[in-house]
Write a structure and sequence with these properties.
276 residues, 44% helix, seven-stranded parallel β-sheet, single chain, alpha/beta, 7 strands, globular
């Protein structure tokens, strides 16, 4: 259960090496979260993340989880909930793919879709069912502003995030009134934490190296996204934009006629500030 300060006492992270997820875990541990599960493929990075969070005072456990292996989700994630109630689930896994390659290699494009959408649908439904069964908890899903108005430059990734976003909103409606809180988070381009560049988020690393966007007013950081998530939890928000100004920007872009939209700078890959 959440403590008197509204912070979850237990956290399950799907995508246990995500910089955004780990930044969120640090903030929650500082606010009295005591049990953290990091779910992901076994790797030194996952072990390192768990060890770092333990130094902050949390009981951290790792669990094998593969977004592409949907048939294993019910068993793998179900075992976690048998250990005790989970107050918050953070779905933070995903891949960006390579747009140029994926257009030429359909199976690569399918991998992006299976990871970002199909895998998230499977894991999200398993966790939602478990949260509903226990009668409380929050499910937080990392979407992306890239799914709000899909661009030529990354329509494969963007379409997978658009599907995930729509799924999360529908799931939130389905769970309304059950005691389960569902929140979708829509970050813009996320600048990697320079202090931990080797663990750069897979969704942004290649693009960051090719076209740094530190100066963009629409870019953000893992820590900023984490702060917005914690605030959203406290307010029981259903949708969180990071930075908040993206809400207004995307509201305008959604209504731009397609012929004009094709001529805007956001149409090209240089407009990475509108990418997670």
């Amino acid at each position: 259960m959440k403590d008197a300060f509204g912070a979850p006492q237990s956290l399950l992270v799907l995508g246990g090496t995500s910089q955004i997820a780990l930044a969120t875990a640090r903030r929650l541990i500082a606010r009295r979260t005591r049990t953290v599960w990091l779910a992901g493929r076994p790797s030194p990075a996952l072990d390192s993340a768990a060890a770092e969070l333990r130094t902050r005072g949390a009981d951290v456990r790792t669990v094998d989880f593969d977004a592409l292996d949907s048939e294993s989700h019910e068993t793998a994630l179900g075992k976690i909930f048998t250990e005790g109630d989970i107050d918050m689930v953070l779905l933070a896994f995903g891949i960006a793919g390579d747009q140029e390659r994926d257009e030429e290699e359909p199976l690569s494009a399918v991998r992006v879709a299976r990871t970002n959408y199909t895998g998230a649908v499977s894991a999200g439904l398993v966790c939602a069912g478990a949260l509903q069964a226990q009668g409380h908890g929050s499910l937080v899903v990392l979407s992306s502003v890239a799914g709000e108005r899909v661009r030529r430059a990354d329509f494969i990734y963007g379409s997978s995030k658009a599907g995930l976003d729509a799924f999360t909103q529908g799931l939130g409606d389905a769970l309304y009134g059950t005691g389960v809180h569902v929140m979708v988070v829509r970050p813009g381009f996320v600048r990697p934490n320079t202090a931990v560049r080797p663990a750069t988020p897979r969704l942004t690393a290649a693009r960051f190296a090719a076209a740094p966007l530190e100066a963009s007013p629409l870019a953000t950081t893992p820590d900023a996204v984490a702060a917005a998530i914690v605030t959203g939890l406290r307010r029981r928000s259903e949708t969180v934009w990071v930075p908040g100004s993206l809400r207004v920007v995307m509201s305008a872009l959604r209504h731009v006629p397609r012929p004009l939209f094709r001529r805007l700078p956001v149409w090209s890959s240089a407009a990475g500030a509108l990418k997670e």
